[in-house]
Write a structure and sequence with these properties.
Shape: globular
Number of helices: 4
Low-confidence stretches: 10-24
Number of strands: 7
């Protein structure tokens, strides 16, 4: 897949990387990766990596080949960070200034989003990952401009709920992995528990690659938004990577 413009974001760092010859294309394909809770100093390109006990050679290579923006402002939590990213506006204007629990929340339905604007330009739009901008009808990703979505509506913390003392799914929250098409009610795919928490980023990556491959075959420009979950607590590695760092999970 040539001519892909890649953006890599962190909730804490807002790292942008622009790759390849995409700038010359009228409608470049866009892959935006958001890394949840990744600290600026964790990456080798910013002085971390091996010095922190976890080399990041692939990200360092992307940074060396692209553009790094090193002067920026960030929001303090997941919901406002994602709101600002999707709208280009201060979260207070969108009703998304903080993370809330147990009440109606989410991006206001009249807000214009990046996928909505790109859809108007003929793009296919797909999201694969954590949304955290609403978990009720009218506020899911597929109500805000995405043609398809696979992931979790809220936060990765919820994967811990079912393993907590005296958890009762009949009266408490039942976190799930979901998928949906544009303006359709999401379908529950699997419980979002600690086992799925270890697996989900692998699934998100596979879903994103499948989406991009399908759009290339259809000769359709695409916007793929991939907000990964792995660095957010609980930081549990995929079974294939347990113990490989020598420094624990």
């Amino acid at each position: 897949m040539n001519n892909i413009k890649i953006f890599i974001f962190s909730c804490c760092t807002c790292l942008f990387l622009f790759i390849g010859s995409a700038f010359a294309k009228t409608q470049p394909n866009v892959l935006m990766i958001m890394v949840d809770n990744l600290g600026y100093g964790e990456l080798g390109v910013y002085g971390g990596g091996s010095l922190r006990g976890a080399p990041t050679p692939n990200i360092d290579t992307l940074a060396a080949q692209g553009l790094r923006l090193t002067n920026f402002n960030v929001e303090p939590q997941c919901t406002p960070s994602r709101s600002a990213l999707m709208t280009g506006r201060h979260p207070i204007r969108s009703g998304t200034t903080k993370v809330v629990w147990g009440m109606l929340y989410g991006l206001t339905q009249w807000e214009q989003t990046l996928p909505e604007l790109l859809s108007e330009q003929g793009y296919s739009t797909g999201m694969f990952g954590k949304w955290h901008l609403g978990d009720t009808d009218g506020r899911f990703p597929t109500n805000q401009g995405f043609d398809e979505w696979y992931g979790i509506a809220n936060t990765t913390d919820e994967s811990q709920y079912s393993s907590q003392y005296k958890y009762d799914g009949k009266v408490g929250l039942k976190p799930v992995v979901q998928e949906a098409k544009r303006n359709k009610t999401p379908t529950d795919i699997a419980p979002y528990d600690l086992d799925m928490r270890r697996q989900i980023d692998t699934d998100l990556t596979a879903k994103a690659i499948d989406f991009m491959t399908r759009q290339v075959k259809a000769d359709k420009p695409f916007f793929a938004y991939v907000p990964l979950t792995q660095v957010h607590l609980p930081t549990l590695p995929h079974p294939d990577f347990i113990g490989v760092t020598g420094n624990g999970d």
